[in-house]
């Protein structure tokens, strides 16, 4: 059965001379079709995830493909039973994915794209080191077997982590293969490694989501769930909504087992952040959760219950 809401995760590195001038048209198109979500615009391109009816998403994607350099905009689609977003945001940023390396240009030098069908053969080679470029809480709920976890809290931490561990990572290895959720972080991380002098750098084309979409279910090597930046929180290997929920305090995914912990309070805290909350923050979270519950009982949406990737 087809679910009512279609989600579209997208990005495109392009040269936008005037991203501010593109913003109003994009926002108007989204609002005209009732599309919600977050889109980030910068001089280097566009990134984001949106959701709406299939026809509405098609209309917005058609508009985005008229932007400079976006004719071949790649999109990863999925379905959701309820609206994954609670509002629309079209924001201007310095970077569409923040790495803190302003001189990198993914349009000029990135790693070699690897199709999902060829990915497992590459990462199983003995001369390949495999790196998961996502943050620690994302890796914790699912990854490819044998992938190295940098244990970074932010993508900004990746360059320092690689430089500190470069010799150990590349010892006896000729190839570096990297992956992320939708592919965008690998555009920058592979460009970074190339700038650091690593020659054979590869990345999973379209990221984990594209891999799960394209690969037959009985051939998927991925283990666990994949964190996504919307109200689904995580998806299973068949791209259905997963078993994790969102901690509203720290915005980390919380597993069914963690929800059995006395440190988990719905809408307030989870085992990862319980000790970090003071009484004031706990009280504010409790009140927000109370308002959300009241709105839910009335059949309304509480706009405070949101999840955005900035």
TrEMBL record:
Domain called Rhodanese: residue spans: 124-220
Keyword terms, alphabetized: Oxidoreductase, tRNA processing
NCBIfam families (UniProt xref): PRK00142.1-4
Family in the record: Belongs to the TrhO family.
Reactions this protein catalyses: uridine(34) in tRNA + AH2 + O2 = 5-hydroxyuridine(34) in tRNA + A + H2O
Enzyme class: oxidoreductase
Segments of this protein annotated with the region Disordered: 290-310
InterPro entries: Rhodanese-like_dom, Rhodanese-like_dom_sf, TrhO, TRHO_N
Protein name listed in UniProt: tRNA uridine(34) hydroxylase
One Pfam family cited in the UniProt record for this chain: Rhodanese
Job of this protein: Catalyzes oxygen-dependent 5-hydroxyuridine (ho5U) modification at position 34 in tRNAs.
SUPFAM superfamilies assigned to the protein according to its UniProt record, in alphabetical order: Rhodanese/Cell cycle control phosphatase
Protein EC: 1.14.-.-
Organism: Sphingomonas olei
